Amino acid sequence: MKTKVNHPDFEKLPLVDAEWTEENWRHLLDYLVLNDVVSYKEITSLVLGHLNPSQVGTSIASKKTFQAHFPPRKTWQAVREWHLSQLGRCVDCNTRLELQADHINPRELLGDTADTLENMTLRCRRCNVVRRPSHKNGGLTHLTAESALMWILFTKKPTTYQEYALLCREYGLTMANIRFEEAWAMARWLHREGKYEISDDSKF
Ligand SMILES: [Zn+2]
């Protein structure tokens, strides 16, 4: 099945992800909606869910190392004050999405003594992961790994699985190949609906 569902200007997107403008991102969003991959309702619902600073405070308050600094049953009150005093944005990239409580000076250096409210800040999930030495290439797509897997699929449009897996490695994704194979299912599902081109020499 030969299909071509490119949005008119899709080929004009910058190759370097860091150079993407808001206009480019809007373009990709429109593309996903126009091709009935997702609806605006679904997108908005997801965004709203990720704006909720879920378990930012409660995860801290539930830890014994933090509780040790406060009288019995007073931890939450202190954590809540800390939580409210934050800016509500990631200290590294400024996003409001997917905020997590993160250490300023890492636990790897300080051990349990790192667990004080003064040493805690808000950092988004992506920036949190990218900080770890094992993920030094993780920032290449400026997305979380799970998003990057789909970003590569929809913007680079590899027509074979082999090409897709290669692209994923080039973008610094370090997970096992089976995760790429799993993500490739999206290409296969969309192909069946006439919305993604897969060439005959694709491995599967
Ligand atoms: Zn961030």
Explain what this protein looks like in three dimensions.
This protein is mainly α. It has helices spanning 22-34, 40-51, 56-61, 64-67, 75-85, 107-110, 125-131, 145-156, 161-170, 177-192, and strands spanning 99-103, 120-124. Helix 9 crosses helix 10. The longest helix has 16 residues, at 177-192. The model is unreliable at 1-6 (pLDDT under 50). The structure holds zinc ion. Zinc ion (ZN) binds at residues 90, 92-93, 95, 123-124, 126-127.
Task: Name its key features.
47% helix; 2 domains; 204 residues; mainly alpha; binds zinc ion
The total strand number stands at 2
Amount of beta strand: under 5%
Distance between the termini: 15 Å
* Adjacency order of strands in the biggest sheet: 1-2
* Whole-angstrom Rg: 21 Å
Question: Can you tell me the overall shape?
Answer: elongated
State the low-pLDDT regions, or none. Answer: 1-6
Helix content: 40-55%
Task: Characterize the largest beta sheet: strand count, sense, and whether it forms a barrel.
Answer: 2 strands, antiparallel
Helical region count? 10
Order of helices and strands: HHHHHEHEHHHH
> What number of structural domains do the residues give?
2
How does the helix and strand content classify structurally? Answer: mainly alpha
Report mean pLDDT, rounded to a whole number.
Answer: 89
Give every kind of bound small molecule, once each.
zinc ion
Oligomer: single chain
